[in-house]
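Last lecture ended with a question: if I hand you only a sequence, what can you say about the shape of the protein? Today we answer it with a concrete record. The protein is DUF4398 domain-containing protein. Below, first the input exactly as provided, then the predicted structure, then a couple of comments.
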Amino acid sequence: MKKIALILFLSCFIPKINAQNLYDDALTAASYAYSHSKKAHGSNNVYHTQEYADKAIEAFEKVESLADQCGCKKANETAYQARVDMQSSLEQDTYERSRFFAKRAKELGSTLLEQLTFCQANTGSYDDSYTEEASIDEENDIADLSDDVSNKQRELEEKRRQLEIEQRKLEQQIAEQNKQKAEFEARRAAELKEQTIIKSKAEQALKKLENALQELSVVLNEEATFESQADYLRSENELKNESLDDTKSFYVNRAKELTQTAMQQFAGYNMVEN
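The predicted structure:
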């Protein structure tokens, strides 16, 4: 009789355990889908938007299937719509429209998490009734088993909460990385602008210096020709691969080369005069 009662109890309760496991998997997949959707919407170029959109689509498909198995109709429909929006994001020919659909999918991802949590909390209760002839020992055995299952449910709930905490930490890390990237790009843009200004002024000054040295060379010796080996004209693209200090050092070295060439040539004039 005791074994029969336990079997009846388990036959009613096992489906609920399986459903809870499905919900746990669905919540995990939904969290990944939401995370990838946020990354797709927050990306600053089409390549990254589409990269994360692909991952989000895969996660939404998994949630769609799991929600259907759980019988959570609203979550199933929301996952379907989010997947469609994310697929639309991939099909757009402009960065702005791609982000528009990614944003819609992201918002649906947040709703999806809420719907799955609600469905999980409201799954059908099990029938824990058994024959009135069950003994006190049987009741104690079933109570112990019920406690074990309750502990399992609490573990699953704690796992879900930990997942949400990790998700929030991940989002904070991504936000901080994006902030640091934006700050770096702003600093680099300002530095590159200053490098461009220095390039223009330095090349003009070096040209004037070269002309002056050539003119002075002719004044001192009409037959002489001032030959400079200093190549100081560059394109702006070359500045992108160096720092502001590197740019300054480049033009300082070209100025040294000009003056050293002049000193060597003028030293030769003194030797002729002697």
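Comments.
1. Residues 136-220 form the longest helix (85 residues).
2. Confidence is low (pLDDT under 50) at residues 1-17, 124-134.
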